[in-house]
Amino acid sequence: MRPELSGPRGSAAFAICGLLVLALTVPRSLAAQTDAKALYGSRCAMCHGVGGAGDGAAAKAIKTPMPDFTDSALGAARTDDQLNASITNGKTPGMPAFGKQFKPEQIKGLVAYIRQFQKPSAK
């Protein structure tokens, strides 16, 4: 280790750098998660359910079963790009296209938010 980076000064400099990195990255990620959660709650949960199990109140009126985002097998079978395309372009029957209503970064946030519903697969 270089002499100027050892001892208490080096430790303090390292800690300050670490805190700076956290300060620059964490708020954005937390804000993105919060935005995706709010967007999901207002536009998706009515069909897909608050917990992503496909059991939203409006799902009963749609004849096609909603996907269960908590199902790890379903999650493994669908890529992020496929989820993005479903949100952007919609799916027949019943899934509306949101590509003109949501920004690409909002759709990316929704995909990440949907992924967090997945239960770990049993090994």
Features:
123 residues, mainly alpha, Cytochrome Bc1 Complex, Chain D, domain 2, 5 helices, globular
Helix content: 55-70%
Radius of gyration: 20 Å
Content-based structural category: mainly alpha
| Termini Cα gap | 43 Å
CATH superfamily: Cytochrome c-like domain
Structure description:
The chain is mostly helical and 123 residues long. The chain has a single domain (7-115), classed as Cytochrome Bc1 Complex, Chain D, domain 2 (Orthogonal Bundle). It has 5 helices and no strands. Helix 1 packs across helix 5 and helix 4 crosses helix 5 (104-115). The longest helix is centred in the first third of the chain and has 37 residues, at 7-43. The chain is globular.
Helices and strands, with pairings:
Blueprint: H1 7-43, H2 45-48, H3 72-77, H4 80-89, H5 104-115
Concise description?
This protein is an all-alpha fold and 123 residues long.
